[in-house]
Amino acid sequence: MSMIKTTLAEQAYQELRSRIVGGRLAGGQRLLPNELAAELGISPTPVKEACLRLEADGLLVNSSRRGMVVRSFNEEAVEELYAARTLLEKGAVEAAFDAGRLDEALRVKLQDSLENHRRFAKGSSLDDLAKALSHDRAFHSSLVGAAGIPMISEVHSRIVGQTHTVFVSIPGDYSRSVEEHQDILDAIVAGKKSQILAALQRHLERSRQNTLRQVKVLARAIEPNLV
């Protein structure tokens, strides 16, 4: 795969991030810049730059013994991620509601994400799950983005990327999330803030519990690289 010279680091970053969030690079896996550079058809420098960005995103950790490895998550990390995610999403949705930004254009965007999410969630392959999760992220990103605060959206994107790497490690009970998204959208259509926030809270709480179950399964299956 060749890359345009002016955007080598960015494209390397996007490719590696996609592999991590999509489950093709698993937690604990070591990344070798020289091998990745050869595979991508570029020099090691932009790959190293991409790895530093992924470390800042919380998707890689720099081990003194092994170099850059894909991050694994323990229960404490998951609890922290969901506490932050809940505050960000509920706060952003409330701000968007108060500003009148949960409008028809947003509802159309959410419906599109939901339909694609439902279609891929029915699949059984890792690729299907990765695609379903990408539409899951699009749904939540649209909700948060409606607040019109780019910094919040940026932090939220990093957090959701981290939580989704757990889902692709060991696929769990994921299908119900589609209907929970439908509940959120139905509440938005109804136009009641308390109903919207309650539906979002239920969804995030169930997602937290599901993610914690998966972390425990991983802990029993392998010796994780906990951070």
Question: Secondary-structure blueprint of this entry?
Answer:
Elements: H1 8-21, H2 33-40, H3 44-56, E1 60-63, E2 67-70, H4 75-98, H5 104-121, H6 126-145, H7 150-169, H8 176-190, H9 193-221
Antiparallel strand pairs: 1-2
Helix pairs in contact: 1-3, 2-3, 4-6, 4-7, 4-9, 5-6, 5-8, 6-7, 7-9, 8-9
Q: Which features characterize this protein?
A:
two-stranded antiparallel ribbon; disordered N terminus; mainly alpha; Arc Repressor Mutant, subunit A; Four Helix Bundle (Hemerythrin (Met), subunit A); 227 residues; globular
In CATH terms, the superfamily of the largest domain is: GntR ligand-binding domain-like
Question: What is the level-2 CATH architecture name of the largest domain?
Answer: Up-down Bundle
CATH C-level class of the largest domain? Mainly Alpha
Indicate the overall shape. Answer: globular
Question: What is the strand arrangement across the widest sheet?
Answer: 1-2
Number of domains: 2
Give start-end ranges of low-pLDDT stretches.
1-6
CATH topology of the largest domain: Four Helix Bundle (Hemerythrin (Met), subunit A)
Overall pLDDT confidence? 89
Oligomer: single chain
Q: How many extended strands?
A: 2
In terms of DSSP E residues, the strand content is under 5%
Structural class: mainly alpha
Rg, Å, rounded? 18 Å
Q: Output the helix-strand order.
A: HHHEEHHHHHH
Figure out the total of helices: 9
CA(first)-CA(last) distance? 33 Å
Helicity level: over 70%
Give a short account of the largest sheet. 2 strands, antiparallel
